[in-house]
Amino acid sequence: MFSIDNILRENIKRLVPYSSARDEYQGEASVFLDANENAFGSPLEQQFNRYPDPLQYQVKKRLSEIKGLPIRNIFLGNGSDEAIDILFRSFCNPGVDNVVLVPPTYGMYQVSANINDVEARNVPLTEDYQLNLEGIAEAIDAHTKLIFICSPNNPTGNSIDRSDVETLLTNFNGIVVVDEAYINFSRQKTFIQELTEYANLVVLQTLSKAWGLAGLRVGMAFASEEIIEVMNKVKPPYNVNEASQQLALQALANVDQVNNWIKETLNQRDRLVLGLKDFDFVLDIYPSDANFILVKTTDARGIYNFLVQKGIIVRDRSKVELCEGCLRITVGTPEENNLLLQSLLNYK
């Protein structure tokens, strides 16, 4: 049975977190002489001379309303990458523990493992881009702390079978991280609804994709209260800056706008698939639950270089295991998609 005490690093159990200036008083205040800030203001129209809320209460309050779960189950980070790194630093002893990855998948899991000196045991997806449960079971040992699953998956675009993820959550005594960066574009429901069922579940989401806030770097993690407490303990004191908090809060008031963009993106995805099918050099287009498509071609590098010359940038994934010959193409605006298709008419 999962117990956080069994997988938490001993030094993190003993860790006394940094106490910021904004953590040490209760109630309202109007004069702040505690944090060595510039009391005169900022050389900007908007004032940023004060440190931000270290726990991002207002943003979490709005997310709580949207997601339908308590604030205590929400962590905000400087992008989802910070949440990934904090999970490694909280639960994996360098040079001792390991994690399981299921490539092809998001590359930062491997990078974070390398940075933290944690072995990554790769269990490739099946030919139809689903979990190899038998292979994962064989890879797990007493030092396996985390399993990372991206669903919808990047770069393949498909959702991972829900029952397979639930099998891991039920049988694995470490943490299963389900990265849902592209969930807004998916037919599959979020795993956030399962947090009360699985104490070892962490769900990652982001404001970078459907919400159009990639430049603000605001990532989200949803988990049990005890896991969130650990993540808040380990994170830097002011990890999400004031500008990002303010702008994220403004954006979160515009749910209807985002939903309209999602619908348009899905329409454009279908249109892009139909357009690309007409080209002889396109061998296959894989089903997608994301805002991109994975396209198997006769000459991925050649097409990539041709498009670069036209000022159009896609992602060459042809050297990634199980993605040989593939390009990953993000769904753009109607005008951008038109330009892509028109340019490819001249590819020979």
Automatic annotation (TrEMBL):
UniProt cofactor(s): pyridoxal 5'-phosphate
Residues of the Aminotransferase class I/classII large domain: 45-343
PROSITE patterns, A to Z: AA_TRANSFER_CLASS_2
Keywords: Amino-acid biosynthesis, Aminotransferase, Histidine biosynthesis, Pyridoxal phosphate, Transferase
Residues with the N6-(pyridoxal phosphate)lysine modification: K209
Gene3D superfamilies for this protein: Aspartate Aminotransferase, domain 1 (3.90.1150.10), Type I PLP-dependent aspartate aminotransferase-like (Major domain) (3.40.640.10)
Organism superkingdom: Bacteria
Cited SUPFAM superfamilies: PLP-dependent transferases
Reaction equations catalysed: L-histidinol phosphate + 2-oxoglutarate = 3-(imidazol-4-yl)-2-oxopropyl phosphate + L-glutamate
Cross-referenced InterPro entries: Aminotrans_II_pyridoxalP_BS, Aminotransferase_I/II_large, HisP_aminotrans, PyrdxlP-dep_Trfase, PyrdxlP-dep_Trfase_major, PyrdxlP-dep_Trfase_small
GO biological process, one term: L-histidine biosynthetic process
Enzyme class name: transferase
Pathway: Lipid metabolism; Amino-acid biosynthesis; L-histidine biosynthesis; L-histidine from 5-phospho-alpha-D-ribose 1-diphosphate: step 7/9
Family listed: Belongs to the class-II pyridoxal-phosphate-dependent aminotransferase family. Histidinol-phosphate aminotransferase subfamily.
Annotated protein name in UniProt: Histidinol-phosphate aminotransferase
Source organism: Mucilaginibacter frigoritolerans
Gene assigned in the entry: hisC
